[in-house]
Amino acid sequence: MKVALFIPCYIDQFYPKVGIATLQLLEKMGCEVVFPQNQTCCGQPMANSGYEHITGDCTKLFQDNFDEYDYVVSPSGSCTLHVKEHIPLKGRIYELIEFITDILKVESLEGEFKHKVGLHQSCHGQRGLHLSQMSELNAPFFSKPEQLLKNLKGLDLITLDRKDECCGFGGTFCVAEEAVSVRMGQDRLGDHLKNGTEILTGGDTSCLMHLEGIIRREKHAMKVMHIAEILNQAIS
Amino acid sequence: MKTHSEAAEVFNKDFDRTTWHDQTLFMVRQKRDKAAFQIDDWELLRETASQIKNNVLSNMHNYLLQFEENASNNGIKIHWAADAKEHNEIVYGIISDYYRGEIPVDTFKGMVKSKSMLTEECHMNEFLAEKGIEVIDTDLGERIVQLAEEPPSHIVMPCIHWKKEEIGELFHKHLGTEKGNKDPQYLTEAARQHLRDKFLTRPIALTGVNFAVAETGEFVVCTNEGNADMGAHLADVHIASMGFEKIIPQKKHLGVFLRLLARSATGQPITTYSSHFKKPRDGQQMHIVIVDNGRSTQLGREDFRNSLKCIRCAACFNTCPVYRRSGGHSYHSAVAGPIGSILAPNLDMRANADLPFASTLCGSCSNVCPVKIDIHQQLYKWRQVLVQEGYTSMSKTLAMKGMSTVLSNPSVFKFSGKVGRMLMDKLPFLVNNNMNPWYKQREMPEPPEESFRDWYKKNKK
Amino acid sequence: MSSRENILSKIKQNQPELLPLPDLSVLGSEKYDLVEKFTEILEGIGGKVLQVSDIEEIKNYIISNYPINARVISTLPAFSDNRDWQTADPHSLKDAEFLIIKGQFAVAENGAIWLTESEIGQRVAPFITQYLAIIIEKSSILPTMHQAYEEIGSIDYGFGVFLAGPSKTADIEQSLVLGAHGARGLVVFLV
């Protein structure tokens, strides 16, 4: 299966390892992966700030890069959601985890990852893309990321007090509402620290970048890995 | 006036108090979950309520006429107020008429009022105070903030930001309770005695309206304390103020809304009292003031009209991670929280331009909403409107335009990305300073050796 | 043009196209033991529920649990012959300690009891007395609010209330306190 990789701008520039892990993981699962070279950004930072009307050029560029592919895959729930809701494509965009569970039909993964892992559910992945059931609804439980993580040998998935509270990143919210943003991040980390998370993971690098910023400032021992990095490492 | 983010920064200076505020409200969210999950049909109930309200919005004109006719036939006098000022004048007029135009200000004891966010929106207490009429708020939480000369910080739990020690001190000062006594039981008893005297002596009572039934001309008021009933049934004149969106078509629809309201609000199966006022009692006057105050404009905004479906349960407040960590007063609006942030810009875009940005768009609000208002989508849409109408700063617009230029031009993007990483790498003080809000309490990401695209070119192409 | 005409014409102009009302008949299919559910819920919100076999049992309970010299009012002949209070100035009920009445029906899912003027005698009565007792026939307990409104149907009243438990507040730091402004306690006698 041929897939085009959409690597969001901040992953390209600051977290290339997440892009590399995504690419390698998909290749291990038998996909032919291409990275259209002229891609930049989906336009979400502007749109969420109220500037959707100036994202036309971004949208056009995105379509020029990705329109020829049936499957576009991205290791970011947030950017995927934006593309889904705002950029019409000839094919379809999938967040990495949902692509693995829904299109590649992977029920569970064989592998090993001997750590206590805390999963941070990004709101856009969870409530936007329905990667897992939301705690507000009276509806049956499911979790696509947990489906892939839970069978890895040695992996201890941490149970949190608040399983799907927002981390406070929120795009430009993280600087426009700096005090609340940081406080939300601290509280999310507090939940993970209290319950024993060694490695914090998630499907959205933006949330993780924000949380990692606080971890490093406050000098916590917790490590941060994108879920693509864990899966890629576990099944190698 | 401080913007939401400025006020929130002040709020967050007290770390422990912010923790307490967050945890208290999250506990209410958990009570809501527990109550909601006991109803197998919960999601169907929400969908049904949503559809009833959609029908109401689409047939508002006829329902209002039907309500007016039926209520009038029941002996209730209906008044119409285009805006806050007219609402307040109507209320004053009713009091004045009761005294045949001459309110005996020296002996007149004023009015008791149960919870009505609409009168907060209209600033009615201040208006009547200027005319020498004292309004006593009778909901315990509202009485507390009234004594403290503050607005409510939450539409269901008005003094959720107050600690019992502080309430003890306030009551000691105003009600003469023992100094240092902070026992909720004791303080509530003191308020009971204090307010019982007011109920027994005030000739005018004002209540809000939770639901007004077009089919029968009756209206329903929900309280736990019984203050609306104590006021209304003892007073000679009962005035009920309602925004026109409180209309529902038929009595049987109350079954849907009363199942949802208290469970969503506090996790109770129903409020203690759901009082159905249909006719005035013998010798009593009953008035309803139907208020527009911008609602008909909102009804015409396709993207925002369904905010008028709100039944004021405040579930969106309790679940909102931003509200819990910034407090109701940060929203500088009678209705705070996520729903307030989509209602307030309709009333005044300039004054409330900050509110739709006081959210991470996490979407939890829309999920708890018992009438399925797409609150977080509307926050996003208000941002677009506010920017296009020119209510954001020029510097932000320039920054966004600059970002757009970079991001829509691959060669510029590749270049500026390199420069950005290089600057952070070589000259960290350019970015890592306190002018940069990210850096105040967070480290910047460590810039890698090469970007993903550089790696890809080297290794894959 | 008056405000009324202004508001109504603006609403007519701005309201969206007519949307249908949903079907309510699919709701309210909950199945549970009605007496058990009602008891559990009402006790959970601060009410007391007693199963009794006759009026004497109720009388004995009241005599042994409430001050005998306090003012008791009732709309039920078995408890009081006095009817004057029903037409008196409502303020005159301020010293009434105890009201005993019969509810029309009750709702299992939320512990609510439907009362109208004909049961309560005076609108203010169930709110102003310190304590409240309500007699409910077990056979009148309905599963949910949907059946409750069917039961009410188009019967006319001037004032009606769903009353669920004693008056309460949690406005001080979310600590639950019974007896805010209305009755401090509610006992329900199931017959």
Query: What about the largest sheet of chain C?
Result: 5 strands, parallel
Distance between the termini of chain B: 57 Å
Main sheet record of chain B: 6 strands, parallel
- Largest interface: chains, residues each: B-C, 91 and 73 residues
Count of extended strands of chain C: 11
Give the SSE order of chain C as H and E letters.
HHEHEEEEHHEEHEEEE
What does the radius of gyration of chain C come to? 20 Å
Q: Write down the CATH class of chain C.
A: Alpha Beta
- What would CATH call the architecture of the domain at 39-293 in chain B? 3-Layer(aba) Sandwich
* Assembly level: heterotrimer
* Broad structural category of chain C: alpha/beta
- Rounded to the nearest angstrom, the distance between the terminal CA atoms of chain C is 59 Å
Any idea what the CATH superfamily of chain C is called? NagB/RpiA/CoA transferase-like
Show unreliable segments of chain B: 426-430
Total helices of chain C: the number is 6
Fraction of residues in H or I helices of chain B: 40-55%
Residue fraction in strands of chain B: 5-15%
By DSSP (H or I, 4+ residues per run), the number of helices of chain B equals: 22
Flag low-confidence runs of chain C.
none
User: Taking all residues together, what is the mean pLDDT of chain B?
Assistant: 93
